[in-house]
Batch of 2 targets.
Target 1
Amino acid sequence: MHTLTTISGMRAACDALRRSGKTLGFVPTMGALHEGHLSLVRAARAQCDAVAVSVFVNPAQFGPNEDFSRYPRQLENDSQMLAAEGVALMFTPGVEEMYPPGAATFVEVEGLSERNEGRMRPGHFRGVATVVSKLFHAVPADKAYFGQKDAAQCAVIRKMVRDLALPVEVVVCPIVREPDGLAMSSRNAYLTAEERQWATVLFRALTEVRRSFDAGERNASRLAETARAIFAQVPGVVPDYIEVLDPDTLLPVDVADRPTLVSVAARVGSPRLLDNIVLPGRAP
Ligand code: AMP
């Protein structure tokens, strides 16, 4: 595995790979890698001849009171995990490389960026869209892999790629979970032992929504209410939102009669966790 820290070096390495006739899959991450990230790497390996992974904790997507400075950074460990997965290129730029002094150009996907997770985190998706578009320039690839775990991010990236006609195919991979259902996340490392127990309520609430859906419920408010009732059983967990949405527009739906995103975010103690499911729209 080659590790590169400059945009020009990374671009040259990707171009050389592709000139030799190989297809390239790209997995952008913020590091502190876990099985969720590795599932994206494995999907990329299965579908492309070579894989590139970026590890960059992007300051532009953190709000002023968020966890940028204490976000887990484990570059040495990440590097070993990626080498063991057969990754060809690792990109680990510094902040000045991605944001040269005075950088004043941003990418904003209007509308989507203010909905769902974006409503709770003003400026977050501007930071995400900006860094992902920069990463796409630094890592020219055939396909780029994202996790369904961040459903609103997937909607923003898909729309950005379409609106700007970026020459990359977006592939969205399923959520990887712990055995008890908790969606894997680098932020799970913040949870105390007690909070770790509480945290299972996100998936339990979503599972109950799915059960209700499978029993025939299609009314979005009643589906959300099902989740809210499960959250109410765990006082240490405070939901930020429970939303029933169109997965592309992130606008609320009244009736889950087509593929529908059920998205939850909650504070589990102090850490804030996300999870979601997609209802198929028709009983299977
Ligand atoms: P992050 O490092 O948190 O920015 O995540 C990098 C990529 O990994 C994003 O596309 C995430 O959606 C994806 N990802 C994170 N956790 C999971 C998970 N549990 N299952 C699948 N993908 C994930």
Target 2
Amino acid sequence: MTKSTRLKRAYVETYGCQMNISDGELMEGILANDGFEIVEAPEDADVVLVNTCAIREHAENRVLGRVAQLNGLKRERPDLVIGVTGCMAQRMGETLFERAPYVDLVMGPDGYRGLPDALENLEGYRSDRGSNSRIRGPQLAILDLSLGENYQGLEQRRTEGPTAWIPIQRGCNHRCTFCIVPYVRGPEKNRNPLEILNEVRDLTSRGVTEVTLLGQTVNSYTSMDLSFPNLLSEVARVEGIRRVRFTSPHPNDVTPELVEVMATEPAVCEHLHLPAQSGNNRTLKRMLRRYSVEVLLEKVELVRAEIPEIALSTDIIVAFPGETDEEFRDTLELMRTVRFDEAFTYKYSAREGTPATRLPADEFIPMPEAQVRLEELIEVSRGIQAEINAREIGRIDEVLIERVGRYPGQILGRTRRNKVVAFDGDSERIGCYTHVGLERTTGATFAGKETSQPELVGQS
Ligand code: 5AD
């Protein structure tokens, strides 16, 4: 199975969204299958892959800083291969070699099947020239976007634990004018539902009890006559699965059928991420979000009517080009009307190649003004979150213990409604379910006390 003769140890460092984390696991799976040892630090690796995000300029700048830092390792070990993969690799393409000449490999999100071959090519070239020559090159860029690549049949390398990400869809058919994703991940590609269900079953046999279905607009999934609500209920019914989540949905595909499945399948968690982006109709139109504030509010009402316990989170962009102060106030108004449990808030970041960058130059909002709007939005959304969470004190919730806390003896769990709770307990119990009384909140997270003995999972 091992093709490579010298490159043996690989380290993958991931930035960005859950889809990227999942892609990192996929790359590790592909490399492990090719005979690579996956290591936990760049110092121990022959190949370092930085798996990147392109959603905002800030994310890209962080990566450029990081690869410059990794070049320090390469100076000590000229043989070290540095690869940049994922969305930023796709967006920047070969220009990345100009910005960071020490990068050997640039590979977009559809190229990972070819990862072993690409590394072998790089290695072959090096051994021809002798490993000590500080030659730059060859530099390989693999940037083809595919209409069909959904990595069917490949296995991810997952860290052991009670939760797992399941990619069910790649790419996106929307064209939100601010967003780079369709240009770096191509059109929507859905995975075969039978393979997805097999994967879920296999994961339960390894102790996984919670899965999160992933896709860019996850609820537009359709394959083999199965809609997203159909798939969701199938996954929820897999024996051994206690919790199912999904992210990120598009509001337009939050249909009565989907809400019905969420309300009736006991395993589907009472949490919905509903990216609003703005609370103003003119801005939503110019973002090409394809819904109005009124439609969004109807979706919220529908979900709350069927699932009274539901916790809602959202994404908001402030200072989209041309957004007036009044239009921004509409977003604040939306926040006060809906009262989201959590909001992820961003300043608009111009992404080359996206339609919004072609708006008139004088519509772009200066950074200081965008910053003021962002801070006001954060203040409002954090205030609402703190009020909501303060009212939850006294509740007893089921939590899945996920990881160790910040202090010795402290563990962290997550409720079905996606709230994080810290409490005293033994780290050996990661993966167990228990009940915790919520006693205090920082506003965003909780501290509590266990009220029952945890049951062992995966034993039935
Ligand atoms: N600028 C700022 N935020 C963006 N997002 C997507 N593209 C941009 C951009 N160009 C935000 C959206 C999306 C989240 C993942 O990132 O709110 O839902």
